[in-house]
Amino acid sequence: MRALILLGLVGFAAQLVDGSLGMAYGVTSTTLLLAIGTNPAAASATVHLAEIGTTLASGISHWRFNNIDWKVVAKIGIPGAIGAFAGATFLSGLSTEVAAPVMSIILLVLGLYVLIRFTAFGLPRGNLGKPLRKRFLAPLGLVGGFVDATGGGGWGPVGTPAILASGRLAPRKVIGSIDASEFLVAIAASVGFFFGIGSENIDFAWVAVLLIGGVIAAPIAAWLVRHIPPRILGSAVGGVIILTNVRTLLRSDWIDASGSIQAIAYITIAVIWAAAIAYSVREYRRDRDNETVEAIEAEERRRAAEQETAGSVGTIG
Q1: Which UniProt keywords apply (predicted)?
Q2: Structural domain boundaries of the chain?
Q3: CA distance 252 to 95
Q4: Which among 237, 209, 223, 263 is positioned nearest to 112, based on CA atoms?
Q5: Which is nearest to 25 in space by CA: 295, 279, 268, 240?
Q6: Minimal CA–CA distance to 19: which of 69, 58, 52?
């Protein structure tokens, strides 16, 4: 029972992050399942089955808050589903001894990307309004879907930063569209895993509690997407993913590191992680203060212009 409650809380937290940031539900949930010894293919299958419900709930919630561009959903979601089915089939054919380190490496790379991207750059803005073309979104969807299925997560970390970097879609629209299109990816990946490993290796109680936690968090996350600082959240989530998957790799047969080496690695990661979060907080506050100053200066210029116009009219009269 304690394990189920923990998984429910993980599902809630992961969806809260995913719905606010456009990534990390699958990566966070799969990382935990791997850490407690779940078969890699079964872990990814469990998460993707839960994501069918969480992404549907998230998509509906983002739709209600007008956070979705449906053209983007169609252009990236269908190729993403194809890539996810292929990735699920590929992962199902790997042995556990090979799959666990491979998945951890994928998750580690995604974690590094999330940490660096959001710590150093935050959410990029610019070139808003320009169309996102199919020749950009289709390959992105194929790669994102494949990585998502093989890594147990990755649709958001691949798709969200790439579209944000284009600067052509408002951040809340990017996050909402990625979350909505992930519904197609989750279905395709689940079908692929059923073909590859069947259902006997999947604990449907785990699927249920992950789903319940995620569904509860989905509407909260859709509302928070306009208020929560993504830069800070990205740094925090990236650190969790890195730390957990380094632990898996150091304990795997590929490395089999000693206890002292593991301790040094964990302390080093923790220090870097804390520094990244502190830097993100500082940069977020600085950007917020700059925006406040700019808004005040703009308001003062507007009032000065109005007074000048009123004075000119009075002189003429």
Answers
A1: Cell membrane, Coiled coil, Membrane, Transmembrane, Transmembrane helix
A2: 2-316
A3: 14
A4: 237
A5: 240
A6: 58
- Gap between the Cα atoms of 262 and 276, Å rounded: 21
User: Which residue in 203, 195, 85, 90 sits closest to 145, CA to CA?
Assistant: 85
Buried b (16+ CB within 10 A) or exposed e, 25-38: bbbbbbbbbbeeeb
Structure tokens belonging to residue 92? 């199902």
pTM higher than 0.70, yes or no?
no
Contact 182, 196 (CB under 8 A): no
Residues ≥6 apart with Cβ < 8 Å to 312: none
Q: Where are the alpha helices (DSSP H) in 68-170?
A: 70-92, 96-120, 134-151, 155-166
Task: Work out the number of other CB atoms within 10 angstroms of the CB of residue 264.
Answer: 12
Chain center to CA of 17: 7
Under a CB-based contact definition with an 8 Å cutoff, are residues 21 and 234 in contact?
yes
Per-residue pLDDT 10s for the chain (317 aa) are 666 676 677 777 777 776 666 666 777 777 777 776 767 777 777 777 887 887 888 788 888 888 888 988 999 999 999 998 988 888 777 665 666 677 678 778 877 887 888 888 776 555 556 667 888 899 989 988 888 787 666 787 778 767 766 767 776 788 789 888 988 998 998 888 877 766 666 677 777 877 787 778 777 776 766 666 777 777 877 787 788 778 878 887 788 888 899 999 999 999 999 999 999 999 988 988 887 887 787 778 888 777 777 666 555 55
- Residue in the structure block whose two tokens are 């990735």: 87
* CB distance 71 to 215 below 8 Å: no
Give Cα 223 to chain centroid, integer Å.
Answer: 16
| Cα–Cα distance measured from residue 311 to residue 177, given in angstroms and rounded to the nearest whole number | 50
Buried-exposed string 110-123: b where 16+ CB fall within 10 A, e elsewhere: bbebbbebbbeebb
